[in-house]
Design brief:
With 247 residues, this protein is mostly beta strands. The protein contains three helices and twelve strands; from the N terminus they run ααβαβββββββββββ. The strands form three sheets. Strands 1-2-3-4-5-8-9-12 form an eight-stranded antiparallel beta barrel. A two-stranded antiparallel sheet has the order 6-7.
Length: 247
Amino acid sequence: MKKYLLIPLILFFFQGNPLHAQEKLSRWSVDILAGGASPVGAFGSLNHQQPSGGPIHTGGLAELSGTYHLNRSFGIVLLAGGQVNKGNGIIYTEPPQPLPPGTLPGDEQVQAAHGSQHWKIARFLTGGAYSLPLNKKNSLDLLVRVLAGVQKTKPATYNQYFDNDENYIAAPYIHLPWSFSYQVDAGLKWQQKGRIALITYVGYNGSEPSKDLTYLNFSNQTYNYYKVKAKFPTGSLLFRAGMEIRL
């Protein structure tokens, strides 16, 4: 009698056990995405303590992420992304430095120089992902991700024309510190044959690096230097498409 009971159990665990089938599914997947990043809010107009030389334009974006799938619905995401937007830099002033020995006031030479005209952003995020099947075949899923981490922002060089000959000064870009960054995404996934799926995401990323900067104020026929804690939000709408590869 015991032998007859063992046969169904063996068949259950080694042939028809759903858990056994799930173990064969890979827990890891890799997403490769690219698209556009459109600045919004203060980043789009670069509206801060001093006027800017112009808005920041829509640029390119690339992301590489890995997801560990806890089950069919939930996963943990590790993401590295890069963003580039064309636009002017941050206007600021440095206090005057002592002239070299033997130099008379008025002998300074202002040289025209071209600087980088792009904002460059790198971010490293982690968080959770949720997947909801939208059809019975499980070929179409709704995706939601909530991520947070750190961001490094490199502003463009600030250029400004200053005479009729179209010479201009170029202030070097400001070294902004690492800042907190967060991202919220919603997307769709179309499962293809094998381990490949097509993915598209729409989302928002926000960060606000800050730095103490010096500005120049002219009042009562006198130039006065003052420092402020300047903040530079980099909020962007992100549009991406690419593929998921199950490992």
